[in-house]
Protein backbone atom coordinates (compact mmCIF):
# COMPACT_ATOMS: atom_id res chain seq x y z
CA UNK A 1 0.00 0.00 0.00
CA UNK A 2 2.84 2.36 0.88
CA UNK A 3 4.47 1.85 -2.53
CA UNK A 4 1.17 2.48 -4.31
CA UNK A 5 0.71 5.76 -2.43
CA UNK A 6 4.30 6.75 -3.18
CA UNK A 7 3.77 6.06 -6.90
CA UNK A 8 0.57 8.10 -6.84
CA UNK A 9 2.37 10.99 -5.11
CA UNK A 10 5.22 10.80 -7.64
CA UNK A 11 2.78 10.79 -10.55
CA UNK A 12 0.74 13.71 -9.24
CA UNK A 13 3.80 15.75 -8.27
CA UNK A 14 4.79 16.13 -11.91
CA UNK A 15 1.59 18.16 -12.38
CA UNK A 16 2.14 20.42 -9.36
CA UNK A 17 2.56 23.65 -11.31
CA UNK A 18 -0.48 22.96 -13.48
CA UNK A 19 -2.56 22.16 -10.40
CA UNK A 20 -1.44 25.42 -8.77
CA UNK A 21 -2.48 27.29 -11.92
CA UNK A 22 -5.94 25.70 -11.88
CA UNK A 23 -6.25 26.42 -8.14
CA UNK A 24 -5.23 30.07 -8.62
CA UNK A 25 -7.50 30.66 -11.60
CA UNK A 26 -10.48 28.96 -9.97
CA UNK A 27 -10.29 30.52 -6.53
CA UNK A 28 -9.00 33.89 -7.74
CA UNK A 29 -11.66 34.02 -10.45
CA UNK A 30 -14.42 33.34 -7.95
CA UNK A 31 -13.15 36.09 -5.68
CA UNK A 32 -13.12 38.49 -8.61
CA UNK A 33 -16.69 37.43 -9.42
CA UNK A 34 -17.80 38.07 -5.82
CA UNK A 35 -15.83 41.31 -5.55
CA UNK A 36 -16.84 42.96 -8.84
CA UNK A 37 -20.37 43.96 -7.74
CA UNK A 38 -18.84 45.43 -4.60
CA UNK A 39 -16.23 47.41 -6.55
CA UNK A 40 -18.81 48.92 -8.91
CA UNK A 41 -21.37 49.40 -6.13
CA UNK A 42 -19.90 52.78 -5.27
CA UNK A 43 -19.91 54.67 -2.01
CA UNK A 44 -23.34 53.47 -0.87
CA UNK A 45 -22.27 49.83 -1.20
CA UNK A 46 -18.87 50.52 0.35
CA UNK A 47 -20.41 52.30 3.34
CA UNK A 48 -22.65 49.29 3.99
CA UNK A 49 -19.72 46.90 3.78
CA UNK A 50 -17.51 49.15 5.87
CA UNK A 51 -19.97 49.14 8.76
CA UNK A 52 -18.77 45.59 9.41
CA UNK A 53 -15.68 47.10 11.02
CA UNK A 54 -18.00 48.33 13.78
CA UNK A 55 -17.85 44.74 15.03
CA UNK A 56 -14.27 45.51 16.04
CA UNK A 57 -15.07 48.96 17.45
CA UNK A 58 -13.92 50.77 14.29
CA UNK A 59 -16.79 53.10 13.43
CA UNK A 60 -14.96 55.76 11.41
CA UNK A 61 -14.59 55.89 7.60
CA UNK A 62 -16.98 53.07 6.63
CA UNK A 63 -16.67 54.01 2.93
CA UNK A 64 -12.90 53.53 3.12
CA UNK A 65 -13.16 50.17 4.88
CA UNK A 66 -15.86 49.01 2.48
CA UNK A 67 -13.74 49.98 -0.51
CA UNK A 68 -10.76 48.16 0.99
CA UNK A 69 -12.85 45.00 1.48
CA UNK A 70 -14.09 45.28 -2.11
CA UNK A 71 -10.56 45.80 -3.38
CA UNK A 72 -9.30 42.87 -1.31
CA UNK A 73 -11.85 40.58 -2.94
CA UNK A 74 -11.62 41.78 -6.52
CA UNK A 75 -8.03 43.06 -6.67
CA UNK A 76 -6.70 40.34 -4.39
CA UNK A 77 -8.52 37.72 -6.46
CA UNK A 78 -7.01 39.15 -9.65
CA UNK A 79 -3.48 39.19 -8.21
CA UNK A 80 -3.98 35.67 -6.84
CA UNK A 81 -5.20 34.36 -10.20
CA UNK A 82 -2.33 35.97 -12.08
CA UNK A 83 0.24 34.90 -9.51
CA UNK A 84 1.41 38.51 -9.27
CA UNK A 85 2.54 39.75 -5.85
CA UNK A 86 1.12 36.41 -4.88
CA UNK A 87 2.12 36.09 -1.26
CA UNK A 88 1.06 39.65 -0.28
CA UNK A 89 -2.23 39.04 -2.12
CA UNK A 90 -2.72 35.85 -0.08
CA UNK A 91 -2.15 37.75 3.15
CA UNK A 92 -4.56 40.49 2.04
CA UNK A 93 -7.21 37.88 1.34
CA UNK A 94 -6.53 36.07 4.63
CA UNK A 95 -7.11 39.30 6.54
CA UNK A 96 -10.29 40.01 4.57
CA UNK A 97 -11.60 36.52 5.31
CA UNK A 98 -10.65 36.91 8.99
CA UNK A 99 -12.79 40.04 9.23
CA UNK A 100 -15.67 38.34 7.38
CA UNK A 101 -15.51 35.22 9.55
CA UNK A 102 -15.14 37.11 12.83
CA UNK A 103 -17.96 39.53 12.11
CA UNK A 104 -20.31 36.73 11.03
CA UNK A 105 -19.57 34.76 14.19
CA UNK A 106 -19.85 37.81 16.48
CA UNK A 107 -23.13 38.80 14.81
CA UNK A 108 -24.48 35.35 15.72
CA UNK A 109 -24.81 34.02 12.17
CA UNK A 110 -23.09 30.82 13.22
CA UNK A 111 -20.57 28.53 11.62
CA UNK A 112 -23.02 27.44 8.90
CA UNK A 113 -22.90 30.99 7.47
CA UNK A 114 -19.30 31.80 8.44
CA UNK A 115 -17.73 28.54 7.27
CA UNK A 116 -17.09 29.73 3.70
CA UNK A 117 -14.96 32.67 4.81
CA UNK A 118 -13.11 30.41 7.25
CA UNK A 119 -12.44 27.81 4.54
CA UNK A 120 -11.31 30.46 2.05
CA UNK A 121 -9.07 32.09 4.66
CA UNK A 122 -7.43 28.76 5.47
CA UNK A 123 -6.90 28.13 1.73
CA UNK A 124 -5.23 31.51 1.22
CA UNK A 125 -3.12 31.01 4.34
CA UNK A 126 -1.82 27.69 3.06
CA UNK A 127 -1.36 29.08 -0.45
CA UNK A 128 0.92 31.81 0.91
CA UNK A 129 3.36 29.10 2.03
CA UNK A 130 3.07 26.94 -1.09
CA UNK A 131 3.64 29.72 -3.62
CA UNK A 132 2.10 30.34 -7.04
CA UNK A 133 4.03 27.78 -9.09
CA UNK A 134 5.97 28.34 -12.28
CA UNK A 135 2.93 29.33 -14.36
CA UNK A 136 2.67 32.69 -12.63
CA UNK A 137 3.75 36.25 -13.25
CA UNK A 138 5.85 36.20 -10.07
CA UNK A 139 7.81 33.26 -11.47
CA UNK A 140 8.09 34.93 -14.88
CA UNK A 141 9.40 38.14 -13.24
CA UNK A 142 11.89 36.20 -11.11
CA UNK A 143 10.17 36.94 -7.79
CA UNK A 144 9.43 33.28 -7.09
CA UNK A 145 12.34 31.70 -8.97
CA UNK A 146 14.42 31.00 -5.87
CA UNK A 147 11.52 29.73 -3.79
CA UNK A 148 10.39 27.27 -6.46
CA UNK A 149 13.92 25.98 -7.14
CA UNK A 150 14.54 25.45 -3.44
CA UNK A 151 11.22 23.63 -3.07
CA UNK A 152 11.93 21.37 -6.04
CA UNK A 153 15.41 20.51 -4.82
CA UNK A 154 14.01 19.29 -1.49
CA UNK A 155 11.47 17.08 -3.26
CA UNK A 156 13.94 15.31 -5.57
From TrEMBL:
<keyword id="KW-1133">Transmembrane helix</keyword>
<feature type="transmembrane region" description="Helical">
    <location>
        <begin position="63"/>
        <end position="86"/>
    </location>
</feature>
<keyword id="KW-0472">Membrane</keyword>
<comment type="similarity">
    <text>Belongs to the DoxX family.</text>
</comment>
<keyword id="KW-0812">Transmembrane</keyword>
<protein>
    <submittedName>
        <fullName>DoxX family protein</fullName>
    </submittedName>
</protein>
<feature type="transmembrane region" description="Helical">
    <location>
        <begin position="12"/>
        <end position="33"/>
    </location>
</feature>
<dbReference type="Pfam" id="PF07681">
    <property type="entry name" value="DoxX"/>
</dbReference>
<dbReference type="GO" id="GO:0005886">
    <property type="term" value="C:plasma membrane"/>
</dbReference>
<dbReference type="InterPro" id="IPR051907">
    <property type="entry name" value="DoxX-like_oxidoreductase"/>
</dbReference>
<dbReference type="InterPro" id="IPR032808">
    <property type="entry name" value="DoxX"/>
</dbReference>
<keyword id="KW-1003">Cell membrane</keyword>
Amino acid sequence: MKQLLQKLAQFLFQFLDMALLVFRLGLGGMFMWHGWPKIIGGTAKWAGLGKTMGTFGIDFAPVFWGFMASFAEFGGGLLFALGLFYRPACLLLVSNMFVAFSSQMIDGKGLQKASQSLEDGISFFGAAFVGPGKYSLDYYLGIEDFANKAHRMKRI
